[in-house]
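Hi R.,

Here's the chain you asked about this morning:
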Amino acid sequence: MRIAIDARKLHDYGIGTYVRNLVHTLARQGGTDTYVLLCRESDVPFVRALGPQFEPLPEEAANYSVREQVSVPVTLRRAHVDLFHAPHYVVPPLTRCPYVVTIHDCIHLRFPQYLPNRAAHLYARTMMWTSARRARRVLTVSQASKDDILHYLHVPAERVEVVPNGLDERFATPPTPEDMARVRERFQLTEPFVLYAGNIKPHKNVDRLIEAYAILRRQGITGTKLLIIGDELSKYPNLRRLVHRFQLHQHVRFFGFVPDATLAALYRLASVFVFPSLYEGFGLPPLEAMAAGAPVVTSNVSSLPEVVGDAALLIDPLDAGAIASAMARVLSEPDLRADLIRRGHERAKLFSWDRTVTRIRAIYAELGAQGHD
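And the predicted structure, written out as tokens:
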């Protein structure tokens, strides 16, 4: 079977992580199918390096563009594929081959205020609705996301399947002592620290984390810094303003993008990892942190309780005081910290890309057997 996968977001956060792990695991698992990857011209060598099962199919139409609405269906038709996997919610309506779509979350429908304008909301709602309604199967990454898809998109429940994300093994593999020392020296980590990692869009609730950290210091826990890792900080100047308002500029440090190997070390060095997001389709950072040995505090909403189970402290993300109290407990109770680390290691073992991709391949086979109708 010839299966096309849209890999144009290969280098993005979020969906890019999904695509990278999907194709790497497909390559590792082998099989007889051929995978045709829609990709940027610059990624053709990457696709060829995956092995003889993979064919690059250059596609330069930008994501979310008018051009892709015509270009992608034409490219797929010329490639004579049997099945198309769209790893995000945009599937051009002119697409004629059978397809499966992964809808990671419904954040654009639940929080339209985070989109730049009403036109963006209309686009997201329309594309999500049409792609889900016409898909042979809708994949999603948590039961919470499935519930949202059923609520907003009215897709028959039997066509929506939960296939959780896996864990990148790099986060479960301990860095060498030399790597740990290098990260400590590079970032001058001479004091204990609270860590946040992820993007810093408004729904990630980083502003309330800063407020909670200010409360923590007022309560007398002053020997701990706050490290915030997230790209595109310049788009959210309110965070730096908040730091200065609480007079925390000597205690809060903002890092931009860091490579996964550096992030794995930072997770291990953190005194506590805090992820107070208001909404997640899955939420990989808490899982990565648990695998790396950080005690985790995270939200009691959306998919996050599904991911962390009983291996983290769950808090109301709208309550800065509750976030501060949870951080204080982890920082001041060694037995609790050790228990969270132990539980986190065990919980993280439940999530693997091999298991995830084995299920996705079974879905490919099932839909391939159905043919074009």
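Residues 72 and 78 are 10 Å apart (CA to CA).

Let me know if you need anything else.
M.
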